[in-house]
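Our consortium's second objective concerns turning raw sequence data into structural hypotheses that experimental partners can test. To show how far this objective has progressed, the report includes one record in full. It was chosen at random from the queue rather than selected for favorable results. The single chain below, 82 residues long, was entered without modification.
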Amino acid sequence: MTKREKRLERIRQNPSGWTIDELEQIMLDYDIKYLRSKGSHRRYFYVLGGRKKQITVPVDKPIKPIYVKLVREVIEEIISSE
């Protein structure tokens, strides 16, 4: 099992205790790229179905599970479109 697969399995099983660095790494695995930072939030973009989309994640420590779940849903959407 690769590191990418391990991170995917971890985000599927447990949305708690993620840091922004860990979350960014899994987002990079699925081509979700950093766009900009404003205050305590970071914006990321990805292309799905030919359209550019964005997600915003507050940089709390640790990241709240609701935002980890949002990233997981985006990743699942990307995987299903491949």
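The partners drew two points from this record. The longest strand covers residues 41-48. The chain has a mean pLDDT of 92. Both points have been shared with the crystallography group to help prioritize constructs.
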